[in-house]
Amino acid sequence: MKRVITLGQFIIERQSDFPYAKGELSRLLRDIGIAAKLVNREVNKAGLVDILGEHGTTNIQGERVKKLDIYANEQFIAALGSGGETRGIASEENDELVPITTAVSKNAKYLVCVDPLDGSSNIDVNVSVGTVFSIYRSTDSSAPLSEADFLQKGVDQVAAGYVIYGSSTMLVYTTRRGVNGFTLDPSIGEFCLSHPDMKCPETGTMYSINEGNYARFPEGVKQYIKYCQVEDDATDRPYTSRYIGSLVADFHRNLLMGGIFIYPSTAKSPQGKLRLLYECNPLAFLIEEAGGTASDGHQRILELTPTSLHQRTPLFIGSAGMVAKAEEFMRGSHRGEPLTGDPAS
Ligand code: AHM
Ligand code: MG
């Protein structure tokens, strides 16, 4: 019989990869796993209990907040607070950073950026949602916690991951030592290693974008979409269009099968919709570790300098070959060139 490796065992075994590690990051990852299980329990009951519907408040982006967003946010703050390794949290659901002041956290060194429940508008219709998280080391854990500490570049992340609450629930994370995926076995309540060393195919045949916004897209994106739709045997085009509208689910599919996800700038939202700190950076960190790439259409996401907790950025993410091609269109290098065949060749 194959050995079942739980998330807890895996984290402990990996800890020895870091010779000077004191287990703090391992304990922090464990805390995230605990919160994910609690959120999963509520998400799975969403159709059964009276927890659906809007809570009546708005978050900093001016969007209506669902009850489950709030529940998930509370679970992550509570789990990270009682775990003792987190100094502060930047969450999509909190306008300001959340300092952790529990007694056990007084020597904490880590900062967590989290979108506790992304894609929550999908809950009412039973579509997958997710949690996205990113972990940084505080630049000076003896100084008072400040927003500036959170404004580190994505390249400085020490770990990142997501949880997908889908047809099964999975937790996928990286600490720069490969990307590993764990599926929740509800019968034993444990995340079990199911997808070791995940790799994103170099290219794929799926593109994911909200084409309803087509008229508002930059010219390069419009041209790239046309390129995806043109018939060409050599590159397996036309590609298949797949858009769930739930970032984690769209990302997870493309990570496993190859593909590109684009949320570009639009005439209405020049910075796009997605948030740099707790949506784009963690997924960019994961995709690069899995062999893919992430860009804002012109430059690497992980190199962007954050200026505020909730800032947005356009996102092009997925198979390296597909992102590179989309970037070529963004540079305008294909203006006037035929879309059949490979214009670069
Ligand atoms: P949210 O953080 O308010 O849930 O919004 C983020 C979601 C992503 O999951 C998804 O990729 C995107 O919004 C979809 O946006 P749109 O409906 O504009 O296509
Ligand atoms: Mg979100």
Task: Sum this structure up briefly.
The chain has 8 helices and 15 strands.
Please explain how this structure is put together.
By secondary structure, the chain is α+β, with helices and mostly antiparallel strands. It folds into two domains: 7-195, Fructose-1,6-Bisphosphatase, subunit A, domain 1 (Fructose-1,6-Bisphosphatase, Chain A, domain 1); 206-331, D-Maltodextrin-Binding Protein, domain 2 (3-Layer(aba) Sandwich). The chain is built from eight helices and 15 strands. The chain has an eight-stranded mixed β-sheet, sandwiched between helices. A five-stranded mixed β-sheet has the order 12-11-13-15-14, with helices on both faces. The chain has a two-stranded antiparallel ribbon with strand order 1-2. Helix 1 (7-15) packs antiparallel against helix 2 (24-44), helix 2 (24-44) packs antiparallel against helix 3 and helix 5 packs across helix 8 (320-330). It is globular and about 65 Å long. 46% of the residues are buried. The model has no long low-confidence stretch (mean pLDDT 91). Magnesium ion is lined by residues 92, 115, 118, 279. Magnesium ion binds at residues 92, 115, 118, 279.
